[in-house]
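Apologies for my clumsy wording, but can you show me some protein sequence, whichever is easiest, together with the matching structure tokens, please?
=====
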Amino acid sequence: MRIFMCLVFVLSALSAEGNIFFAKVGETVTMVCKLKASLILKWSHGTNMMFNVNTKRGSQSKGTGEIVQRSKVKHDVNLEISKVKEADAGGFKCEADGKIEEFILAIVSVSITPSNVLQLGKSAQLQCQVKGLDQGAEVRWERPDGHSQKNIVEIPSVSVSDKGTWKCIVNYAGKTFNENVTITVKELSQQSIPTLKSQTLEIIKQPTSVTRNPSSQDSSVLLVLLEFPLWVWLAFGAGCLVVILLIICVIILCKRMRRRKRKFLKMKNAQNQLKPKTYCQCDHPTAAPKPRQGRRREKPSALPL
């Protein structure tokens, strides 16, 4: 019985060898059916009918399912699936006049946890999975140095040798599919600041006691200062330099203004000393002398009547 099942598997794989399609989530796949239908052509996904096309009338009926909404039959023969999802993986059939042509859609997904930018010494996981194929598919990773590993790679401690291009390789029925991902490893110099920051946070979170050691206080203050990134220190230094230059310019301008003011006062005093002294002179004519007054003549007394 096992030998019979193996023969069936080999024959089915050989028959579908030229009709295997590899795709990633979100891509568009077009399956070309080579059968010629005189009247009716059918497309089905597994046991579900997708399209029933009447080639003479040019009409078609659709089945149910979410994949049907994203698919269409082009030129009354070819099946086009847009925005492929993992649920679309599996077998497809094109049936015409009693003849059947089978297709296999394999969805390949690659993931890196936590991301493709890894920190030195941290753990990571790489997964290369394929849906739609049976157990005869070979899925493996190829490291940047050329060594092969299984489809799920666990890295307990990331090293510099882990950076580079990793290849997810899928082999099935004589066909090969490759999906490349690039991993970047942060060097120690790039992650020294986050390490100091975590150490500073740990020191801050520790409970404080009544008596403190001055040396421990100095070290904690130093760590707090070192947690700032390099650009903050550069900006702070540039700002201090600008302030110092402004203060120097203000001092120089004040001294020049005082010198000019003194020089101006000296010149003014010298000009005042050279000028002749002028006194106030009245230009009005002198008043005429008053006439002398002599004795007044007495009026004659009135004559008696």
Notes: The radius of gyration is 51 Å. The chain has five helices and 16 strands. Helices lie at 2-15, 66-69, 188-205, 214-226, 230-274. The longest helix spans residues 230-274.
